[in-house]
Amino acid sequence: MSQEYEVLCIRCPKGCRLRITVEGNAVHVVGFACLEGKRFGEEEVRNPRRIVTTTVRILNARYPRLPVRTAEPVPKDRIRDVIDALKGVVVETPVRRGQVIVKDVAGTGVDVIAERDMEAVG
Amino acid sequence: MAAAVKLAGKGYDVALIERKEELGGILDQCIHDGFGTKIFGKALSGPEFAGHFMDEASKLGLDVHLNTYVKSVNAGGDVKELVTVSPRGVERIKARSIVYAIGCRERHPFEIKVGGTRPAGIYTAGMVQRLVNLYGILPGKRVLIVGGGDVGMIVARHLYLEGVESITVVFPEEFFVGLPRNVQQCILDFNIPFRPRTVVKEIVGKERVEGVILVKVDENWRPIPSTEEFYPCDTVIFSVGLVPYAKKLRAIGAEIDPRTRGPVVNEFFESTVRGVFAAGNLVQIFDYVDDAVESAYIAADGVEKYLAGEGRLDNPVPFKPGSNVRTLTPHRLEWEDERPVVAFLRPAVEGRAWIIVRGGNGEILKKEFRQYVRPSTLERIEIPREAIDGAEEVYIDVAGV
Amino acid sequence: MSLESKVRKALRDFPYEIKFEVRDGVVFLDGEVETYQEWVEIGLAVGRIKGVEGVVNRIRWKGYPKEELKRKEERRRKLYEENKDRIIGEYDVVIIGGGVTGTAIARELSKYRLKVALLEKATDVSVGASKANNGMIHPGVAPKRGTLKAKLNVRGNAMYDELARDLGVKFKRVGSLWLITPRTLQKYRRYLPGPFYKFVSAYIFPYLVKLKGMLNGVKGIRIIRGEGIWKLEPKATREAWAAVYVPSAGILDPYELVAALAENAIANGVEIHLETEVVGFIREGETIKGVVTNRGTFLARYVVNAAGVFADEIAELAGSREYTIHPRKGVILLFDKELEGWVNHCVTELRFPAPAHTKGGGINPTVHGNILWGPTAVEVPDKTDTSVHPEEIEEILERYREIYPDFPRHRIIRYFAGVRAPTFTEDFIIRPAKWVKNLLHVAGIQSPGLASAPAIAEYAVEQLRSMGLTLEPKPDFNPHREPIPRASEMSLEELDRRIKEDPRWGNIVCTCEMVSEAEIVEAIRRGARTLDAIRRRTRLGMGTCQGGYCTLRAAEILSRELGVPISQVVKENGGRLFNGTVRGEEP
Fold first, then answer.
1. pLDDT (tens digit per residue) in A55-79
2. What is the pLDDT of residues B246-258, one digit of tens each?
3. C501: domain range?
């Protein structure tokens, strides 16, 4: 018994229309333009995941917020948990791009990393 | 920044002038991911994408002028002179060539003739991105977003996640015009309510927005009588398009294309003022930052040719938008060169289509098939020089299949 | 015929039973009508009667906001009780209203040894009709002969060269050009067969206009034709048969003027109290002793009512309701500065009689290089109705399309509405109150109120003198006010010098209008407390992009200078710019 899905690939702005067939344990994806897309298609049916991008509070920087994101996609139904887990997080300058801000956020096994450098000011 | 990095890499003496306190333009507010898939092969966030170029710039030791406003430019002669104003004082910079990469501005509610009052609580989407992502401030509690493009959807997701009480998106089209990926991951993932074929007729409120009068529109976006409805909210965010910030180029005498609303350019993104180039969203609105960067690289190649005094064609070949093409760059072929011409066009139709490059007499010079074109996605096509050889003018059509 | 019988006769034209009463030349009307429009028409019909000195229109129409007015009244009464015993100070003159009229009177009074307070309920001066008009300094041709309007308009216009120089306000005598086209006398076409129509339009009508102006005392009016017109206005319609040119018409930035008047008045000792709303008066017999506000009571020997659209309510609170204001909204469209040069004079097309909704409007340049179309003139029940309906935009675009057929009408960057404050007698009412001893009415100041303002101030002060106020000139009165220097207008040498002294001159916050941080800080130093107050003083965010880029940066500066969190920064009055923080965290 096979099941078919059609989803929009969200890994890049191209938005490929993926047609995904699931037969038992086998997942077959067509319509992708890159391997990222193939992987996305496979995951989207089994375990839909998203990169979460948000900000955390930072002190003594040019702006009061530091943009951060999950280093890897997290399960879609955990997005809210990730956001909630970042509430109250305060970071000190300086920060480097890619620096881990929160390890294993909300028990997802994924780290939250800084999106940019932020120097101390004043 | 991309043009400066490329030119500095070629060994030119480059000054990079930026009005803000840091480089990167609006990428600092675009904290969502999805940038750079073409160039870096992975989906980066805006600040990450900008960060790569900043690293390059500092490696090359670019002469960067931050916080610097260009007051006037004398672009007439072989040596161009810029007058800049910065906290360091008024300075004059001489250059043999200038690349403008000053981006775009957001269309505001006055441009789409939204009626009513103008109390506090009305923003453009970009303003809200900065507000939320850099300052950690929410514009309001009950939000209406006007516009079904990418920026509107991205802002909707941020506001939803960062804690506004309610949010609705309205737009006059049948469905969201932005990228499908954004529809999926910004709107559908969170069940954010939206109303197609709906526009804001008037804003209501004295000091702060108290609501809006929504009205339904038909397929020509004409309001349907007696479909007005009051929608209570304290915030209205307009995401109704971007326009190249071309006034500075117009001021130095560059010709402006009424379709793109950016400068008229040749294949190396040179404006009609010789030695003055344009790149990025100033030329036209690019949907992919990668394409904007490519335009900067091409402009940098153009600067190189200009400075080397390379030859121009005796008879430039005009490029004109043909059927089903809303905008097209370049506007003409002007240089002697071997490299293929990169053209960007915005289709007026949606679906499977051929992009057809033809000469003035209808002869087909090149044809490329596209799985899916849509007006909200800029198409890129490379045209080999040999294909154009001999043509007096070039048209590009989009033909639906 | 007595006033009573004239009023009775006028009311006969309306199918309603309207009761009336006449007291000292003031007519009080009472009754019920169907529509608001009828309410206006009845008031106007009575106001037109010779000898009527004021119309208090208490007629109700269907939809009369009874509940809302009751709430307003209750709020006032509560504030009155809370504040009447808290004395703020004792003043010779208290002026109510910080528009052009109030501030001009304040400055005029500051020439004398007097303690003066001006009370304004908003967060800035100039926020009513004074900010939302076309900035035209009318020459004085239009007002009816013999009216106070005609007299003060011509006089006020003549005073502007010196006033603008003293206050450092940009003022240009651009002249006005009134086109006479085949549409001018359209209504009379059937009485003027064949060539007579053009002859009367082109050769008789303009002289009548000129004569009217001359009788009002306007000088230099000329009739021009053909190339003469197009030399002045190259892009005006070729249909024009003739034009009346009035060289004394001028333009200025109305809120620059009001801010300058206020600053100069303050420099000469006047107190200006913002966010101070009058909620009642303390009276002893027929004399006002104190003006009660939301902040406390200002004891006053004389009170000037310059409250604009609210003047009738203030008069009522004071006990001398002699007129009703019928708010008349005007919508104006503003075009991009890049169109500078398209229109050089205040141009309009004469129509006789004038079309109801666009009477008095036209196309004007501004001192900043923008071009304005409008205003309209629409009766509205709500005094604070500054909404612009999409249909109104189209109406204006249509109305003036014919006189500039090629104008790039799509380049609108903004539109706005102001509410004029006419009374039913339609003339200015500047006189001592009839039933209160020490109150001066300065009411019904509608167009050409801006042009007349300096003369209104002079005239009002004369009235105060006649009411017994002693005017002893102050030898140290300083008529001069320095404008906020503009980075965009100064020489590069001066800008460089300033930046070396204060680097904030080199931090350009608004790129469309080239406004520096130093200018914003200076505006705040001079009293700007809100984003809009800064915009009006510096032109921040007034350009092509309408604040898309600079709003946040300006909010940041305001927050820093005023020492309030950015989330508390205000746009205008009670309207906070932003409304919360991400996830409720500290910003």
1. 999 999 999 999 999 999 999 999 9
2. 999 999 999 999 9
3. 492-584
Q: Which of B190, B222, B240 is the last residue of a domain?
A: B240
Which domain does B34 fall in, by range?
A: 1-105+242-310
Helix (H) or strand (E) holding B385: helix B385-388
Contact assignment for C582 to A55 by CB distance below 8 Å: yes
Q: Per-residue pLDDT averaged across B223-240, rounded?
A: 96
Looking at the structure, do residues C299 and C352 belong to the same domain, yes or no? Answer: no
The pLDDT of residue A1 is: 57
Q: Are residues C299 and C230 in the same domain?
A: no
Q: Specify whether C214 is located in the same domain as C334.
A: yes
Q: Is the pLDDT reported for residue B375 higher than 90?
A: no
| Residue B147 and residue B271 in one domain | no
User: Exposure string (b/e) for A50-81, b if CB count within 10 Å is 16 or more?
Assistant: bbbbbbbbbeebebbbbbbbbeebbebebbeb
User: How many Cβ atoms are within 10 Å of C459's Cβ, its own excluded?
Assistant: 22
User: What percent of chain C lies above the pLDDT cut of 70?
Assistant: 99
Q: Are residues C545 and C403 in the same domain?
A: no
Compute CA distances C360 → A25, A68, C41, C414, C437, whole Å: 79, 58, 19, 20, 36
Round to whole Å and give the CA distance between B353 and C41.
63
The pLDDT assigned to B184 comes to 86
CATH number of A53-114: 3.10.530.10
pLDDT tens digit sequence for A6-17 = 777 777 656 777
Asked if B83 lies within 8 A of C496 by C-beta distance, the reply is: no
Minimal Cβ distance to B48: which of A54, A55, A116: A116
| Best to test chain C binding among B26, B67, B84, B138 (most C CBs inside 10 Å) | B138
Distance from CA of B139 to the nearest CA of C (A): 5
- Name the 3-class secondary structure at C380: coil
CB A44 within 8 A of CB A106: no
DSSP annotation of B340: P
Confidence (pLDDT) at C587: 59
What are the pLDDT digits (tens) for B324-352? 999 999 999 999 999 999 999 999 998 88
Estimate to the nearest angstrom the gap between the alpha carbon of C136 and the chain centroid: 10
Verify whether the Cβ–Cβ distance C579 to B115 is below 8 Å. Answer: no
Report yes or no: A24 at the C interface, CB cutoff 8 Å. no
- Residues B196 and B125 both lie in one domain: yes
Q: Which chains touch A (3+ CB pairs under 8 A)? A: B, C
Beta bridge partners of C109: none
Domain boundaries of chain A, sorted by first residue: 2-46, 53-114
Which residue of chain B is at minimal alpha-carbon distance from C497? B89
Residue type, B140: G
The B-side interface with A (CB below 8 A) comprises 21-22, 28, 31-34, 37, 42-43, 45-48, 50-51, 132-136, 150, 158, 161-162, 179-185, 189, 287-288, 372
Q: Greatest CA span in chain A, whole angstroms?
A: 65
Query: How many domains does chain B contain in total?
Result: 3
Q: Give the CA distances from residue C118 to residues A121, C264, C310, C572, in Å, rounded to whole numbers and listed in that order.
A: 44, 13, 15, 19
Question: For chain C, how many structural domains are there in total?
Answer: 4
| E strands present in C134-182 | 136-137, 171-172, 176-180
User: Does residue C185 register a pLDDT over 90?
Assistant: yes
3-state secondary structure string, C441-510? EEECCCCCHHHHHHHHHHHHHHHHHHCCCCCCECCCCCCCCCCCCCCCCCCHHHHHHHHHHCHHHHCEEE
Query: Do C239 and C340 share a structural domain?
Result: yes
Cα B274-B279-B280 angle, rounded to 5 deg = 160
| Whether residues B234 and B263 fall in one domain | no
- pLDDT tens across C219-268, in order? 999 999 999 999 999 999 999 999 999 999 999 999 999 999 999 999 99
CB of B43 closer than 8 Å to CB of B288: no
CATH number at residue C42: 3.30.1340.30
